[in-house]
From TrEMBL:
This is UDP-glucuronate decarboxylase. It is found in: Golgi apparatus, Golgi stack membrane. The gene is jg12820. It is an enzyme of class 4 (lyase). It is a single-pass type II membrane protein. It comes from Pararge aegeria aegeria. The keyword Lipid metabolism does not apply. Its main location: Golgi. One of its GO terms (molecular function) is NAD+ binding. GO terms for biological process: D-xylose metabolic process; lipid metabolic process. Its EC number is 4.1.1.35. It comes from the Eukaryota. SUPFAM superfamilies: NAD(P)-binding Rossmann-fold domains, PLC-like phosphodiesterases. Keywords: Decarboxylase, Golgi apparatus, Lyase, Membrane, NAD, Signal, Signal-anchor, Transmembrane, Transmembrane helix. Residues 1-23 form the signal peptide.
C-alpha cells in the first residue's frame, strides 16, 4: 500500500513519503553544502563564546556542531612568529598568566594602537611559552557559567583551528568557513612581526585559494587590507568601528578619514575597490534611540549592496545586557532575552550574515536529524519508504542521517515548524520539541510555540515542556474531531541510545560522559528518585506499532523497569572499564519528580508492544557510541571534553 508519512520529531519535522521502493541501495557520493550556501551566514564570533570560553578549540567545535557556517578567530602573533587566537595581545584578559609566577617579570606597560596598556603581551612570548598558559573567561561576571571551563583549554594556533575545522567538516559533511580578524596590524608591523603574509601563507597552504574559498580576512585597519588585496584573492572584510573614530593606521599616516565617512556611498565605493564585504557595528544598520529601542533601518545595507559589498554586522549577543530594550526578558541583565527577534529585525534590513556569540539561536533543529528521529528514519528507509526530513538543527545533527544523503528516496529540508510548511502527507509523526531541560528551558516561549504552532502547521492552516505537550495533544484531537484527521498520540518516556548529544544535559549522557572521563558522577538530590529508561530502538518500534494500529487514545511508550538514580550511576560506572569515578550528591533540583515510570498496559494490549532491550545492553551500546564520539574529535587532547555536570532534572 502506497502512503505518504509526515514525521515531526524531536525539535524537527520529518516527512516520510511512503512508496514501495527498495531502500537497500548504497548512499551515493555526497555534495557538501558550502559555507556560503545558507543566507544569512552565521559567523560564530570567537566560537560559541556565549557558552564556552572564547578563542578555544572547544568554543569553535561547539559552534560548528551548533550549525555555524563560519568560525571567527581573532589573530595576534608570538615572539617567534606564530599566529595564535586571542582578542587582545594582552594575555591577562583571557589567560591564567597572572597566576604563573614564572612570568611575573614579563609584565610591562606599552602603547598598543594608541592606547596605554599594562600586562603581558603575546609578542613577548614564544609559542612554547604560550602553550603553557590556559584560557579563562574574559567576561566572568556576565558569563559566569563559562568560568567552569577556566584553565581547561589552551591557546590555539591558527593552524590548529584550521585542522579542527577540516576534521569537523568530515563529521558534519559540510564545508565550514574560517573568518579571521587581524588584530593590531600596525602595532605588530612596527615590531617587525607582520601578520599579513603569514595568514595568507597558512590559508594557501591549506587549500584556501581564490574568491570561492570558504574564507574571509577582516581588519579594522585599511592599509593592511589593501596590502592583502595584492597577495591573495581570498575575500577581505573592512570592519567599521564608531563613526567618529579614525582607523589607527590612517591616523598614523596623518589621514583623518573616519569610519563614518567610509560609510557614505562614496566611502563604500572606495572600500569596494579592495574588499568584498563590510563588517559594521549594528548601529550603522539600525541605530537605537535614547531609550535603547531599535530605531528605523538606515540606507547602509542598500548603499553597500549597490557597490557589491556584503554586509555582516557585529555583534549579536543573547544576554539582556546587550539587547535593545524591547527584546529584553526579565530584570536580570545577564539572563538571555529575545535575541532571535533582534536578529530577525536585521535580516529584514537585508544583511548577508551576522557575528553572533550564541550561534544556535538562529540555527534551529526540528527533529529528523535528532536523536530519536534519526533512528526512526533508518527503520522507515529500510522498509522502503520515501523520507523527507524537515529540520532546523537546534539539537539534531546532519551527521545522524548523513548515511542516507544521496539516496533517491531521501530528502532534507531546513525549516522550523513554527512557520507553515505546505506538504501533503498520509501520516504525521509529531515529536517536535526540545526534550532535554537545558534545551527546552533555554527558550520556554519557543518550546511552547513548537508544540502549539508546530502542531497547527503540521495538521493544517518543565512547565513550558509539559504544558506545551498537553496543548499539542488537545490540538491534535481537536483537528481529529473537526477535520476528520486520523490522530495517534504517543506519550514518550525517558529514552536513550546512540546519537544522543554528548552535552544533552540529562542523566544518561551526564553520567556516561562523567564516567568515561573519570569525573565525579553527580547525583542531584538524595539519589532515591526512580527513573525508567527505554532504549531508542524499542521506542521506534512502539511508534511504528502505534501508527499502524487503530487505537486513537494516548499511549505511553517507555520501559517500566525502575531504578533509583543512585543505582543507575553505579550501573554506568561498572559498565565503563577502568572507571575511577566516584558518585557524589548535589543540591536537589526544584520540582524534580521523585518517580517517573510509565504504565504500558495500553501499549501491550492494543499494540502488542513491549520493550526488548535490557538496560545493561542498551547502556553498553550507548557508552560505546559516546567513546567513539570523543575519539573522533581532534581537540580531545587528554583534557575534559566538556563539563557535562549540568544541573538539570534527572
Amino acid at each position: 500500500m502506497d502512503r505518504r508519512v509526515f514525521l515531526v520529531l524531536t525539535c524537527v519535522c520529518f516527512l516520510v513519503n511512503v512508496a514501495k521502493v527498495l531502500a537497500t541501495q548504497q548512499t551515493s557520493e555526497l555534495n557538501r553544502r558550502g559555507a556560503d550556501d545558507c543566507k544569512p551566514a552565521v559567523v560564530a564570533h570567537r566560537g560559541a563564546s556565549g557558552y564556552v570560553s572564547e578563542h578555544t578549540l572547544g568554543s569553535y567545535a561547539l559552534a560548528i556542531t551548533m550549525g555555524a557556517d563560519y568560525v571567527e578567530p581573532d589573530l595576534v602573533i608570538t615572539k617567534d612568529g606564530h599566529l595564535i587566537a586571542r582578542h587582545e595581545n594582552e594575555l591577562g584578559v583571557s589567560t591564567d598568566i597572572a597566576q604563573r609566577p614564572e612570568f611575573a617579570s614579563r609584565r610591562r606597560t606599552q602603547r598598543v594602537s594608541g592606547s596605554l596598556v599594562n600586562g603581558w603581551f603575546s609578542e613577548d612570548f614564544t609559542l612554547a611559552e604560550i602553550k603553557i598558559l590556559r584560557s579563562t573567561e574574559p567576561m566572568p561576571i556576565t558569563r559566569r557559567a563559562n568560568t567552569r571551563m577556566d584553565r581547561s583549554l589552551d591557546v590555539p594556533t591558527f593552524q590548529e583551528i584550521i585542522n579542527l575545522v577540516k576534521a569537523l567538516e568530515k563529521v558534519e559533511n559540510r564545508s565550514i568557513g574560517v573568518y579571521p580578524e587581524l588584530k593590531y596590524s600596525s602595532h605588530f608591523q612596527r615590531l617587525g612581526l607582520p601578520m599579513e603574509q603569514k595568514v595568507v601563507d597558512i590559508f594557501h597552504r591549506n587549500g584556501y585559494i581564490g574568491r570561492n574559498a570558504p574564507a574571509f580576512i577582516q581588519s579594522f585597519e585599511v592599509s593592511n587590507l589593501k596590502e592583502l588585496k595584492n597577495i591573495t584573492e581570498i575575500r577581505l572584510v573592512q570592519l567599521f568601528d564608531a563613526k567618529s573614530k579614525v582607523p589607527f593606521d590612517q591616523s598614523e599616516l596623518g589621514n583623518n578619514l573616519t569610519y563614518g565617512q567610509m560609510a557614505t556611498p562614496t566611502g563604500l565605493a572606495d572600500v569596494a575597490s579592495y574588499a568584498s564585504a563590510v563588517g559594521p557595528a549594528k548601529s550603522y544598520i539600525i541605530p537605537r534611540d535614547a531609550f535603547n529601542n531599535l530605531g528605523q533601518p538606515t540606507s547602509f545595507v542598500s548603499d553597500a549592496h549597490a557597490v557589491g559589498l556584503q554586509v555582516t554586522p557585529w555583534t549579536f549577543r543573547a544576554e539582556n545586557l546587550f539587547l535593545p530594550r524591547e527584546f529584553q526578558i526579565g530584570n536580570n541583565i545577564y539572563d538571555f532575552g529575545d535575541l532571535e527577534n533582534e536578529i530577525k529585525a536585521f535580516i529584514d534590513a537585508g544583511i548577508d550574515g551576522f557575528f553572533v556569540d550564541q550561534p544556535d539561536i538562529l540555527v534551529r533543529v526540528t527533529g529528523g536529524a535528532g536523536f530519536v528521529g534519526s533512528h526512526l528514519v533508518d527503520v522507515l528507509m529500510t522498509q522502503g519508504h520515501e523520507v523527507i526530513v524537515v529540520d532546523n538543527f537546534f539539537t539534531g545533527r546532519k551527521r545522524n542521517v548523513e548515511h542516507w544523503f544521496g539516496h533517491r528516496n531521501f530528502e532534507i529540508i531546513h525549516h522550523d515548524i513554527v512557520n507553515p510548511l505546505y506538504v501533503e502527507a498520509d501520516e504525521i509523526y509529531h515529536l517536535a520539541s526540545p526534550a532535554s531541560p537545558p534545551h527546552y528551558m533555554q527558550n520556554p516561549v519557543k518550546t511552547i510555540k513548537t508544540n502549539t504552532l508546530g502542531t497547527i502547521n503540521m495538521l493544517g492552516p518543565r512547565a513550558c515542556y509539559d504544558e506545551g505537550k498537553r496543548v499539542a495533544e488537545t490540538l491534535a484531537y481537536s483537528y481529529a474531531k473537526q477535520e476528520k484527521v486520523n490522530v495517534r498520540v504517543a506519550r514518550i518516556f525517558n529514552t536513550y541510545g546512540p546519537r544522543m548529544h554528548v552535552s544533552d544535559g540529562r542523566v544518561v549522557s551526564n553520567f556516561i560522559m562523567q564516567a568515561i572521563q573519570n569525573l565525579t558522577i553527580t547525583v542531584y538530590g538524595n539519589g532515591k528518585q526512580t527513573r525508567s529508561f527505554c532504549y531508542v530502538s524499542d521506542l521506534v518500534d512502539g511508534l511504528l506499532a502505534l501508527m499502524e494500529s487503530s487505537y486513537t487514545l494516548p499511549v505511553n511508550i517507555g520501559n517500566p523497569v525502575e531504578h533509583t538514580i543512585e543505582e543507575f550511576a553505579v550501573i554506568i560506572k561498572n559498565l565503563v572499564p577502568g572507571c575511577r569515578s566516584t558518585v557524589a550528591t548535589g543540591a536537589a533540583v526544584e520540582d524534580d519528580p521523585q518517580r517517573r515510570r510509565p504504565d504500558i498496559t495500553l501499549a501491550q494490549t492494543h499494540l502488542h508492544w513491549k520493550p526488548k532491550v535490557s538496560l545493561q545492553e542498551g547502556l553498553q551500546r550507548t557508552i560505546d557510541y559516546f567513546k567513539e564520539e570523543l575519539s573522533r574529535t581532534t581537540f580531545y587532547n587528554n583534557q575534559t571534553y566538556m563539563d557535562v555536570k549540568v544541573k538539570a532534572p534527572h
